[in-house]
């Protein structure tokens, strides 16, 4: 085996090991929060040594940031990328919201790192909070673009405030998560969808009355 081939295989194995560690870390963070992550606990779960886990991340902070990035990548794959295949405007915005609702419904028994992380790090400045806020802002920017495109196409009123509408849509997801996960109330998914329909209707231009 040539030196280059051996190096390529070693690199691939290292990437696979890191991916496996990240997968386990993401599962832990979903149930225990980002603060529940530690090199020691992760080593125990993966059956690796602490030094083996440490070699891939270097610190607990870097591990937390890597988990945030991995969560965001999976979120994009499930929520964002399928929606951008839809026509610009309300079709895309509606699909973004629906995909988001479905994602939250799957996470009810574990937890949304965006939401739980915001609670854990809202008053704790630093690289982990910065990484988490950056990912959430990127998602909000995608929603805001869809809202602005709907305004530009005439599907929403010209005087629509994109940030206000985004605030209301995001509020529906937070309410859904709290109502379903904490209070265990039935029917929350349908209530979130009806709430979104009302928000959209509130910002749509009036239908011209028919001329008699």
Briefly, what is this?
The protein is mainly alpha-helical and 212 residues long.
Q: Could you list some keywords that capture this structure?
A:
Tetracycline Repressor, domain 2; 75% helix; elongated
List the helices and strands and how they pair.
Layout (H helix, E strand, L loop, with lengths): L2 H30 L6 H8 L3 H8 L2 H24 L6 H17 L6 H9 L5 H26 L9 H21 L5 H16 L9
Account of the 3D structure:
The chain is mostly helical. The chain has nine helices and no strands. The protein has a domain at 60-203: Tetracycline Repressor, domain 2 (Orthogonal Bundle).
> What is the CATH topology classification name of the domain at 60-203?
Tetracycline Repressor, domain 2
User: What is the string of SSEs from the N terminus onward?
Assistant: HHHHHHHHH
Main structural class? mainly alpha
Number of helices: 9
What is the gyration radius calculated from CA atoms?
21 Å
Total beta-strand segments? 0
What's the rounded overall pLDDT mean? Answer: 86
CATH architecture of the domain at 60-203: Orthogonal Bundle
Q: What spatial form do the alpha-carbon principal axes imply?
A: elongated
| Helical proportion, percent range | over 70%
Most strands sheet:
none
Uncertain ranges: none
Distance between the termini: 85 Å
